[in-house]
Amino acid sequence: MCGIIGIVADSAVNQLLYDGLTLLQHRGQDAAGIATADSRRLYMRKSNGLVRDVLRAKRLVKLEGDMGIGHVRYPTAGSSALAEAQPLYVNSPYGIALGHNGNLTNTEQLRKQLESTELRHLNTDSDSEVLLNVLAGELHKSGKAQIDSEEMFRALSATQQRCQGAYAVVALITGFGVVGFRDPHGIRPLVIGRRSRASSGYDYMLASESVAVEASGFELMRDVEPGEAVVITAKGELFSQQCAPAHGIAPCLFEYVYFARPDSTMDGVSVYQSRLRMGEYLAKKILRNWPDHDIDVVIPVPDTARTAALELAHHLGVPYREGFIKNRYIARTFIMPGQVERKRSVRSKLNPISIEFKGKNVLVVDDSIVRGTTSEQLVQLARQAGANNVYFASAAPPVRFPNVYGIDMPTPKELVAYGRQEDEVAEFLGADRLFYQDLDDLKQAVGGNSQRITDFDASCFDGHYVTGDVDEVYLAAVGNMRSDKAKQQDIDQGDEDDELPLG
Q1: Spatial separation of the C-alpha atoms in residues 303 and 366, rounded to whole Å
Q2: Does residue 351 form part of some domain?
Q3: What is the CATH number of the domain that holds 13?
Q4: Residue 434: inside a domain, yes or no?
């Protein structure tokens, strides 16, 4: 999962891009980067690390220009190599920088076409570099010294017809403007906002989440539609066009469960309200299956589970308490490469408040259970703090399948629910009882009041891949790249990469 942003304004955009990326930092903590452009030149800074570390003031001021894009990354196929930090750039034609959130499912097919037929050199294993070169190749076909909006949409249409899978993209074309486009299923999110200029017209912003738009002082206009492309010229002109046939709106359910900030609205759905409903539905399930429960207190795993846990406690009629204190200087463990590192960081990330556990039957609520690493250690921490019984609840259903659309779900054998029934997962975690959200309830919690959403990407829960092109061979290939062994090898290689000049 990654975060992207693009801005065209009537003044320097470097600070706006920095602030926007900071608001999207939760979507990726592995690398960050910004590319800007004036009328003749493109400027770029990117590296591994957090936004605040990569884009220090002395580097930020050198990113000149009134249009630009930004990206925060965590790797979706195991690679943390510096060369794959985004934005990615090609100098021909025009000078193009691109940021991508998602994952293409026909990368290898496109790679062969680009290298053998179109004679384009690819320097990384990144599907984002493939996407960039597809776009560059289509723009090159125009044969014009300067691109116009009509030719831009032709190139974007051809790019979207060739690329399969999940993608939300922003691209900066030197001397022209910023473009954004979204896959035909709308799996990955992208919104557009505007603010009035002092003279006339508007500044425009594209971003992964509405929070980056609204907190930056822009007005949220709408979501970019599935299969739609948006063009914002350097003059501040906005154009949009349906460039690929839409297949309804099927956003990723895991966005609402875990990744998105609660103060964001995505495809017309408030993330906060959807998480409240997750807690309500989960409470109803517990009451159906265990009407005479002996739960004394509900304790969330900070931060993502708080909203669901609060509503769950309300419907159960038991107290809600903060029982775990979070060290906010530790990265999100779900997106941390390597199982050993994840285990070590959980202990340093969360510390229990003993008085909230001692002598009580505690229901610990988390947003989801993926590998089980965090959940197992939280159960141990609760027992060590003196809990009589430790029950565990997940606001999401069992995760039994990998996600191939831009979330770094591990191989099936590394998923704690793979091949296990719920009581077996509870035993593995050391919990006295375990409650999972039902998938139908989760879909209702997110999309029940939506007039836009027609379906969901729930592949990590039900194994159904909405693009229809994912088979066992593809899953096996993705599994090889995403295994913890592959990640550790990449970490070792990344240590060497970090010694390269950063520019």
Answers
A1: 9
A2: yes
A3: 3.60.20.10
A4: yes
Q: Which residues contact 49 (CB under 8 A, 6 or more apart)?
A: 31, 32
Write down the residue that tokens 């002109």 correspond to: 237
Q: Which residues contact 26 (CB under 8 A, 6 or more apart)?
A: 3, 259, 261, 332
Residue 371 exposure: Cα atoms within 13 Å on the Cβ side: 22
**Run of H or E including 22:** helix 14-23
Tokens 């490469």, located at residue: 337
Whether 77 and 103 have beta carbons less than 8 Å apart is answered as yes
CA 227 from centroid of its chain's CA atoms: 19
243 and 273, same structural domain?
Answer: no
* The two structure tokens encoding residue 458: 């729930």
Burial-class residue 359 by CB neighbours within 10 Å (0-12, 13-18, 19+): exposed
C-alpha dist (Å) from residue 364 to 164, 376, 433? 39, 11, 10
Any domain includes 316: yes
Residues 153 and 287 in one domain: no
Q: Is the pTM of this model over 0.70?
A: yes
In this structure, are 15 and 90 located in the same domain?
yes
The question of whether 2 is a catalytic residue gets the answer yes
In sequence order, the 6+-apart residues with CB closer than 8 A to the CB of 369 are 375, 392, 394, 396, 398, 399, 416, 417, 425, 429, 436
Give me the residues paired with residue 270 across strands: 265
Q: What SS3 class is residue 350?
A: strand
Same structural domain, 123 and 52: yes
32 plus 96 within the same structural domain:
yes
183 domain-assigned? yes
Catalytic residue among 2, 163, 252, 460: 2
Q: What is residue 490's predicted lDDT score, i.e. its pLDDT?
A: 53
DSSP state of 2: E
The per-residue pLDDT for 484 is: 57
By residue range, what is the domain housing residue 231?
A: 2-248
Q: Based on the fold, state whether residues 296 and 221 are members of the same structural domain.
A: no
Mean pLDDT, contiguous 10-residue spans, the chain (503 residues): 96 98 96 95 97 97 98 73 93 96 96 95 95 97 92 98 97 97 98 94 98 98 98 97 96 97 97 98 98 98 96 98 88 51 67 97 97 95 97 98 89 93 97 98 95 94 96 88 58 45 30
